[in-house]
Amino acid sequence: MRQTVRVLIIEDQAVLAADAQREIADAFEDSEDIEVQVQVATDFDEGFKRVRKGESDVVVLDVRRDATANTPEDDTAGHAGYLEIKKARFAPIIFWTALPEKVSHEEMPPLVTVVTKEDTEKLPAAIQAAVDSGAMATIGSIEQHVASVLTDHMWSELAPNWTEYTQDADGASIAPVLLSRLARVIDDDRERSLTGRPSFRYVYPPASDRRAPGDILRASDETWWVVLTPACDFAQHKVGLVLLAQASPLEAHAKYVAWRDEYLAEKNKGKAAHNRGKGEWNSLRQDVLTSTRGQFHYLPRFREIPDLVIDFEDVRAVPVARLTEYGPVASLSSPFAESLLVQHSHYRGRIGVPDLDSELIQKRLFADVEDATTRASS
């Protein structure tokens, strides 16, 4: 299915804007994947208003506003407009300017790029890169899904039972109901789409100023810590002391060191790469990297978080007032935060019992089978 992409050029020189419009339209004329609709706004304020109203998918934005009878020249107008757009909505921005130095620090390819006026022919490629990122399609799909969930719940549940939902309150009281419904539906959708990628494991940065289980903190001495106090204690204001577990670099963990040393030793002996360190790797993988039981819990590297291993033996209780000494970096998303608490609970609440004598059991079971076979044949 052909994707429609609305491009808005904000450029106060009409001749230049028309040139860019032709360049873009011609480049996508024969595209089988994208239908590009190019519009022009020669007034900055009008252009910004159209972007805020959602009338464009990609914005080609000049930086300098030329002088008019009523306003002086402004070399920062485009950048100021970009900052306003960021507050209102998401749309990829292509700064198209003779002053690239004014906005080069804002580049975040492929979603924010800078193209000079001398390189107008590069505008189509920048638009293509923004489309190929998938960001616009993803956000559009989510927005439609959110609207659908809210609309359906209003008509199917709230409207028929309006009096009951708004008893002793006004219509605004339905907001928590709608938000709870939306959160549950979105969370179900999110869990169905989870993969093993580290980015799915974290909410980065934390979405709330309040601490919660699974929050990843960095202390002033650069050590890493993870909150283990249950969410209900925070919600019910029962927290006097917050339980934290230290998360240390994976490279310092004994099982990682053993695997690395074995790998390097076998490399020096000329052993094939896929056969190096297999023995110690299995131990590292089972006891640390993929473990959901036992003493250790692995946090994969993402952004500024290094590969870390949580040690449930290395915990401390910190007065809640001292949490300001620990900077929040990220939060574990659901169900990873819940899994962390369950593992910690199992580890701390474990009860040691003697192991069964497996050889004795084996002998008895073998004997039972032999007796049964003998009886059946007699």
TrEMBL record:
What is this protein called in UniProt?
Answer: Response regulator receiver domain-containing protein
